[in-house]
Design brief:
The protein is of the alpha/beta class. It has a domain of about 180 residues: NAD(P)-binding Rossmann-like Domain (Rossmann fold, 3-Layer(aba) Sandwich). It contains 12 helices and 9 strands. The strands form 2 sheets. The chain has a 7-stranded parallel beta sheet with strand order 3-2-1-4-5-6-8, with helices on both faces. Strand 2, helix 2 and strand 3 form a beta-alpha-beta unit. Helix 1 crosses helix 7, helix 3 packs parallel to helix 4 and helix 4 packs parallel to helix 5. The longest helix is centred in the last third of the chain and has 16 residues. Bound molecules: NADP nicotinamide-adenine-dinucleotide phosphate. The site of NADP nicotinamide-adenine-dinucleotide phosphate has 22 residues, from helix 1. Pfam families: NmrA (PF05368).
């Protein structure tokens, strides 16, 4: 095993993977806490002792506690959404404590609250509360929606459809979340017991997003607001479980509610550069 006191979860994913690569570039040793260590085995082998890997699955907190033993700090990327994500994440907070981890940097969500309109944000609230109660040192990165996901919401006929009304969303680029995570992991001073709300440079309506997509791609995009009933009906064909359907719909109703419209200076403050815009993300900046 590498001599390291830093663990990175979600390292096979986009945020955790990018944070890990950036740490590696800087020669910072760390442990990849992943569901399937064999997927990172050749990478670990090529890293000349800078990296090691251990199994971490939110569904197996005891195994995760063993894998995290000896670590001082863990970058905890929230698990993929599931019916029991809340229970899994709360169990993982206990596992962090049991493992003797002192500090956690957690990818939370903007405006977390027990009654947040975006149903998945309620899990983030509960997880933050559990981390505080456990007495862990923490830094919460409360990410707004990723700007990067909105192009994925566009249908084949280039329409953004959803019950978002004319609400605004201060979505943030994944790359800025990575930059912010790196900043607080590399220099924890001043970030103890802190919560940062990571947003883009402005709050956009989905109509404005569609116009920007049209401008940047040269292909016509448009936003078509749906009623809640229309939205439910248009997604029913995917046959989602109820919790999944509510998560999907509340992505849009949370935008309509205005809960996700607050623009902050936190990306600039943490990273030293202005947040990337939707144009930047679409152009791959
Ligand atoms: N703010 C937003 O708009 C937004 C959008 C999407 C997601 N998110 C949240 O942000 C997180 C990170 O985003 P991302 O873009 O990096 O996602 P991603 O590319 O899908 O990566 C997710 C990572 O988490 C790992 N993971 C998921 N469930 C796990 C579990 N039960 N136990 C252990 N590891 C697990 C995955 O491992 P495997 O490779 O083994 O699957 C993967 O490494 C997501 O997991 C999700 O909670 C936020």
């Amino acid at each position: 095993m590498a001599h390291t006191t830093l663990g990175i979860t979600g390292a096979t994913g986009r945020i955790g993977g990018a944070v890990s690569r950036r740490l590696e570039e800087r020669g910072v040793a760390h442990r990849l806490l992943v569901r399937s260590p064999h997927r990172v085995a050749s990478h670990v082998a090529a890293a000349n002792g800078l990296l090691d890997a251990a199994t971490m699955d939110f569904a197996d907190p005891d195994g995760a506690a063993e894998s995290m033993a000896g670590l001082d700090t863990v970058f905890l990327v929230s698990a993929s959404e599931s019916a029991d994500r809340k229970q899994q994440q709360l169990a993982m907070v206990e596992a962090l404590s049991r493992a003797g981890v002192r500090r956690v940097v957690y990818t939370s969500f903007a405006a977390p609250a027990p009654d947040a309109t975006f149903t998945f944000a309620r899990t983030h609230y509960a997880t933050e509360q559990a981390i505080e109660r456990a007495g862990l040192e923490y830094t919460f990165l409360r990410d707004n929606f990723y700007l990067d996901v909105f192009p994925d919401f566009v249908s084949a006929d280039r329409v953004l459809r959803g019950p978002a009304g004319d609400g605004r969303v201060a979505a943030v680029a994944r790359a800025d979340v990575v930059d912010a995570a790196l900043a607080v992991l590399l220099d924890p001073r001043g970030h103890e017991r802190a919560a940062y709300t990571l947003t883009g440079p402005s709050a956009l309506t989905l109509d404005e997003m569609a116009r920007i997509m049209t401008r940047v791609t040269g292909q016509d995009h448009r936003y078509e607001p749906e009623t809640l009933e229309q939205a439910r009906a248009s997604r029913a064909g995917y046959d989602p479980e109820p919790w999944q359907m509510e998560g999907w719909l509340s992505t849009y109703t949370a935008i309509a509610s205005g809960e996700l419209s607050r623009v902050t200076n936190d990306v600039q403050m943490l990273t030293g550069h202005p947040p990337r815009s939707l144009e930047d993300v679409l152009r791959g900046a």
